[in-house]
Design goal:
This protein has helices at 21-30, 58-65, 75-88, 99-110, 124-132, 160-170, 194-207, 218-228, 237-245, 272-285, 296-309, 312-330, 351-354, 364-376, 385-388, 416-433, 450-453; strands at 45-46, 92-96, 116-119, 136-139, 178-181, 211-214, 250-254, 265-269, 346-350, 378-379, 381-383, 404-408, 440-444, 455-458. By secondary structure, it is of the alpha/beta class. It binds ligand F0G. The site of ligand F0G has 15 residues, from helix 4 and helix 5.
Amino acid sequence: MKSRVLPFKAKVVEPIRLLGRQERQERIEKAGLNLFRLDAEDVYIDLLTDSGTGAISVAQLGRMMEGDESYAGSRSFRRLEKEVQGTFNLPYVLPVHQGRAAERILNSTIVGPGQYVPGNSHFDTTKAHIEYARGRCVDLTIEEGRSSTINHPFKGNIDLEQLKHFIVEHGVESIAYILMTITCNSGGGQPVSMENLDAVKEICRAHQLPLFIDAARFAENAYFINQREPGFSDSSITDIIHQMFDGVDGLTMSSKKDAISPMGGLLVVRDQELFTKLRTPVILFEGYVTYGGISGLMMESLAQGLREVKEFSYLDYRIGQVTDFGEMLQQTAGGIPIVEPVGGHAIFVDARRFFPKVPEDQFPAQMLCVELYRQGGIRGVEVGACLAGRNPDTGENLRPPLDLCRLTIPRRVYFKEHFEYVAEVLGQIKERCGERTTGLKFKVEAPGIRHFDSTFEYIS
Ligand code: F0G
């Protein structure tokens, strides 16, 4: 493992503590073996999400002090607007309180009943908002993106042939727009190549279909293009980002990821007419169009975060840290089975391979999350059979292709020692419990989005 150059040092720290084994046992039992139901202060290393959990910089904090809380036309909004326009080369900027607010407003405005939105692994909230607008998602991610072991530099790519075929088969009028998610969260932050994006733009132009981007992790995607795609190693991150967004119709963004902000989202479009249409729902659901549900203070943090996230030294450290953690796990206890190659913001442990003797419908990934907490005070999140839910028509449990425990890495928060600790705990769990033959069952299965509120018990 090569040594990394970290472009920051700690100035303010937040204490964390590791509870004793007995206390952890009591806490997780009280939480019904559901990690969402734990109090954060009872968690030692929190890898639940990279959303809103990054460490802010001194420059962000400084600018937050300058936050202008004027209701309309604040200085903070004007600064944010300028930063966003410069980042994406798109003119019309609407702040919103977080990513899903942008999704709700965009989809309720441009998706007609029964219309399709083809894309590459839509994120859960995005899919839910498209369906809420009575649209339908079509996932056309390339085949390689669905496997945990096939190595491909851009597993987030869309299958171009399938996309063309879909458009011809269903007709342009049945499609609301095409959505590209960069990077793909569902596969662990797998990037999309510039070649693939360019080809999608060409297809959209030929059929006069709008193209939108879910830009939650746009800078991480740009870094992967710089590192992995031939012809881009000498391009700056800013130039790559401009090329990525050149010709697209707009973007939705959760600014809690690649704007390293505790809160905030963006809805940004190229067309003035669409901008005019979107203003009313923003005012109805979020707030006036120059603050959209976030404070002047948060707009300053967001604008500064957008600037910092594009720095090469930051991205090199960020993606390097995730890569190193993945390598560390592969060298632990004969190899912890993870999704490869490692993406931008998380490591996914393949729980069916981790607990090969536990039946697939006994929630091996949820059990791994529980064991990580019980044995090490670590919080990950299940992205597998529990999250997948049931088929709304038949009521049967859906069985996703992979049952994963996601270890998500907050930005600028944890150091190498934290990851060494996580690797050690995972190694111990593999050695002590890898041969287990039984898993978990529901105690109470929450209706709808069962991930957050269901409770479980051990089968044996
Ligand atoms: N799009 C992507 C790709 C996301 O990863 C998320 C959130 C959203 C949209 C929604 O944004 O949370 O600000 O409303 N992902 C978080 C996660 C929740 O943990 O992966 P939001």
